[in-house]
Give the backbone structure.
Amino acid sequence: MSRRLEDKVAIITGAGTGIGEAIAHKFAKEGAKVVINGLPDDPIEAVAQEIQSYGGEAIAYAGDVSEEAHAQACVQMAITQFSRLDTLVNNAGVFLVTAEMPDYPIEAFDQTIRMNIRSAFLMTKYALPHLQKTQGNIVSTGSEAGSNRLAQNCPFGGTKS
């Protein structure tokens, strides 16, 4: 296998399960050093240990990166541990409720906006100065829910389009 990301450093948010976990494994197998981010109850330590078990370099940062202090700390952890940042993958997100707009709970709306948009904004804000030094990249995951126009996908679709 080629190691196209040898010595590169990546932060992957929402990497405890699913797509984020798969991205973390792919980056590690391509040679990247990865920071696995997830919420405190997510299995991010297990993901980091699995990557380490096949010779990859990974560390875990448990924290809600929709909170400014955690976004800053996650980026700082990457810089402190690996001295650089080459890629930010904004993958964190939630799909809490399937309901049409009149029935959509305000609390679920607020949490969806916070987790899906605010987290990407804050991570980008704090990662960008480091990414500019390495001519790095930002990848933000999306969803077909943003384009399939199902009323039940509101507001998730708008946050991941």
Notes: Residues 106-134 form the longest helix (29 residues). The beta strands are 9-12, 33-38, 57-62, 87-90, 137-140. The longest strand covers residues 33-38.
